[in-house]
Amino acid sequence: MSSRTATRKVILGIVATDKTFEKLEVRGSEVWRGKCIHCNSHLTVGADGDPISRATVEHILPRHHGGTDEARNLALACARCNHQKGARLDQRRRGDPTLEAVIATLQGRRLARWREPDE
């Protein structure tokens, strides 16, 4: 499986478990539209998982601190928000109050958006 195919699969897994995402038809194509975990701006993802807007995979608990690719640790974020979080916070030590507050906020948002995927 190519890296791009794997990323699309991860994105579709996030979409399936995030109730802000709804299936829509835009210009004759089926897409998923939802919201950035940080700023709530609209994100659009193709039915195949290919980001149409600047959607990126956000690791709520950064991999640098032991975060995994488990669905509850992943969300979609706009590229701007994801990169700003990474630049500002991901390299801070675990236990840093600002880092821990952002992780807790994002975990709460992800939990509030959670939906069980269709089997």
Number of domains: 1
Number of helices, counting only DSSP H or I runs of 4 residues or more: 3
According to DSSP, the number of beta strands is 5
Strand order of the largest sheet: 1-2-3
| Distance between the amino and carboxyl termini | 22 Å
Radius of gyration (Å) = 14 Å
Average of the residue pLDDT scores: 94
SSE order, as H and E?
A: HEEEEEHH
Overall shape = globular
Notes on the structure:
The protein is α+β, with helices and mostly antiparallel strands. It has one domain. Helix content is 36%, strand content 23%. The strands form two sheets. It has a three-stranded antiparallel β-sheet with strand order 1-2-3, with helices on one face. Strands 4-5 form a two-stranded antiparallel sheet. A hairpin with a 6-residue loop joins β2 and β3 (42-46). The mean pLDDT is 94.
List the helices and strands and how they pair.
Blueprint lengths: L2 H14 L5 E5 L2 E7 L6 E5 L8 E5 L14 E5 H12 L6 H17 L6
Antiparallel strand pairs: 1-2, 2-3, 4-5
Keywords:
3-stranded antiparallel beta sheet, single chain, 5 strands, globular, two-stranded antiparallel ribbon, 36% helix, 119 residues, alpha+beta
Short description:
It is built from three helices and five strands; from the N terminus they run αβββββαα.
